[in-house]
Amino acid sequence: MRAVVPRLFGTNSVKWLTRVVLADHRPEHLFTTRLYTRVPPGGGAPQPVREVDVNSRLLGPPDGASVPAGPYQVTGRAWGFAAVVAVEVAVDDGGWRPARLEPRGPQPVWQRFTLPCALAPGRHLIRCRATDARGRVQPPSGARNAVHGIEVVVR
């Protein structure tokens, strides 16, 4: 049997249950004190990893794809513990542009986003970042949920 906790990391969905104990505190053992913790931005004491961070990924075009010049629709998915309220896409060193984001709905599911853009011939780096209802934004780098980027070649 597996206990599944929606919108929390799989580390909180334990396999091979032999008993269930309800407690008002986090147990002290290897997985809760060293392995499934992270240092918050700016430093400080490690905190337990519980809620899924705000995240987004580009799905179309795929990384390394060769696409025709002209109008193209960039697509992807965004998710997190709190609802994603915005996704932005940047091409090369251009600024962040708001993508169209589908609403989350009553279930905690991935939210689709799209952004039409025109790509000139050559190599391009396309990046996306999401913001959740709590105001948390994907960090630029160095984290499990860092801004996602792909490279495409426009012919």
TrEMBL record:
Name the record gives this protein: Uncharacterized protein
Organism of this sequence: Kitasatospora misakiensis
